Structure to design on (229 residues):
């Protein structure tokens, strides 16, 4: 039973436009959410996070929105750049996550392709 | 500052062979983790160590053992490798305070024939 879901395996966006990546979760005990970016043959790198007490967090071109009632979060990248082409993982942390007290539960990832 | 390092980068084993994946971090982090990533899947937690001297099972611990050798090093052992353990293995660490992001190593690509 997947507790963190990324329903779009891939997303293609034109350079300069907005990229919106979506993530849904089922476990209401999750209280902290993160986005990771991963290039081929490298480890994931942290991008941005949000606590469940907030509904928005912004860092430069990246903004994460959290809708607790819908158990949904999204990552907005504006403007999209060629270097943003990568796989993006949504992850959740919290008590009873099933991954251990401090472990992260990951979605399957969305492959973002930025077209020139 | 090398961050999180993993050795080896690649390994091919035959079914039934054993091996140890090594992980070290130089950030003075308290907590360390082992994940595996399979094609089309997210990362799944195998084991973690919240602090030196403690280890706990994650989501998929069967077939693995771990050792937190000291604060810097956290190893993952496959006693009798199986083809189902073919995967990319990532080690991660975090300071261990609440709500810190995890820092990942570059991964070890393991194939079991």
């Amino acid at each position: 039973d997947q507790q963190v879901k990324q329903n779009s395996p891939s997303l293609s966006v034109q350079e300069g436009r907005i990229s919106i990546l979506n993530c849904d979760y089922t476990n209401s005990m999750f209280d902290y959410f993160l986005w990771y970016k991963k290039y081929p043959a490298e480890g994931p790198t942290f991008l941005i996070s949000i606590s469940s007490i907030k509904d928005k967090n912004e860092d430069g071109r990246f903004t994460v929105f959290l809708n607790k009632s819908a158990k949904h979060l999204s990552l907005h990248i504006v403007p999209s750049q060629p270097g943003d082409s990568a796989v993006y993982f949504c992850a959740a942390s919290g008590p009873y996550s099933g991954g251990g007290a401090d472990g992260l539960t990951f979605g399957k990832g969305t492959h973002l392709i930025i077209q020139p | 500052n090398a961050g999180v390092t993993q050795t080896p980068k690649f390994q091919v084993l035959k079914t039934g062979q054993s091996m140890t994946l090594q992980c070290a971090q130089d950030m003075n982090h308290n907590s360390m983790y082992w994940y595996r990533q399979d094609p089309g899947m997210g990362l799944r937690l195998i084991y973690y160590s919240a602090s030196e001297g403690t280890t706990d099972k994650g989501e998929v611990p069967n077939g693995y053992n771990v050792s937190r050798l000291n604060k810097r090093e956290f190893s993952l052992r496959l006693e009798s490798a199986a083809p189902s353990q073919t995967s990319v293995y990532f080690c991660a660490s975090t300071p261990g305070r609440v709500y810190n992001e995890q820092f990942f190593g570059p991964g070890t690509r393991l194939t079991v024939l």
Summary: The interface with chain B takes residues 4, 6, 9, 32, 34, 36, 41-46, 49, 51, 89, 91, 93, 98-109 of chain A (CB under 8 Å).
